[in-house]
Amino acid sequence: MGNSQTALVVLAAVLVGGTIPVLVQLRATLRATQKMVQTVGARADVALSEAGAAAARIDSLVVRLDGGERVEQLIDGVAAVGHMAKELRRSLKIASALGAAVGPAVAAATHALQAGRGPAAPVPSQRAGGEFSEATAMKEGATP
Q1: CA torsion angle 52 54 56 58 (round to 10)
Q2: CA 20 to chain centre
Q3: Is there a domain that residue 139 lies in?
Q4: With the C-alpha atoms ordered 51, 56, 62, 64, is the resulting torsion angle positive or negative?
C-alpha cells in the first residue's frame, strides 16, 4: 500500500468516525421531535373540539335570541352596564378624594371639641391581675 492509499484510508476513517456521532444525535433529535409533534397534535385536537363546542353554544345562543333585534338589545344592555360601571368608578374616585380631604378635618374637629371640654374622663383603673371590679368603677364614677 502506498502513502496515498494509507492517507485515503485514514481520511475515510476520520470522516466515518466524525459522522457516526452526528447521525446518532440526529436520530435522537428526530425521535424527540416526533414525540413532540404527537403531543402537540393531541392537544390541538382537544383544543379544536373545545372551540367547536364553544362555537356551537354561541350559535345556539344567537338562535335563542331570535334574530338581530334581541341581539341589539343584549348589546345595548352590555353597553349600559359598562357605562354604569364607568360612572361608579368615577363616583368612587370622587368619594375617596372627599374622604381623604374631610377625614383629617373631622378628626381635628373632634380633637378640638374634646380639648375644649377640659380633661378627658379618666379610664377605669384595673387591678394588677387585669380584672375590673365594680367597686373600683364606683369610686371613679364609671358605670360597670
Answers
A1: -140
A2: 51
A3: no
A4: negative
pTM here? 0.34
Which stretches does DSSP call E strand in the chain? none
Assess contact for 144 and 137: CB atoms under 8 A: yes
Integer CA distances (angstroms), 122 to 23, 37, 118, 128, in order? 92, 80, 12, 18
Whole-number Å distance between alpha carbons of 32 and 35: 5
- The C-alpha atoms of residue 102 and residue 15 are separated, in whole angstroms, by 86
Amino acid sitting at position 77: G
- What whole-number distance in Å separates Cα of residue 143 and Cα of residue 119? 19
Instruction: Check: CB of residue 124 under 8 Å from CB of residue 137.
Output: yes
Same domain for 71 and 60, yes or no, is: no
Q: pLDDT averaged over consecutive 10-residue blocks of the chain (144 residues)?
A: 86 89 90 89 87 86 69 82 88 79 77 68 50 51 50
Radius of gyration of the chain (CA): 42
Q: What's the one-letter identity of residue 131?
A: E
60 and 89, same domain (yes or no):
no
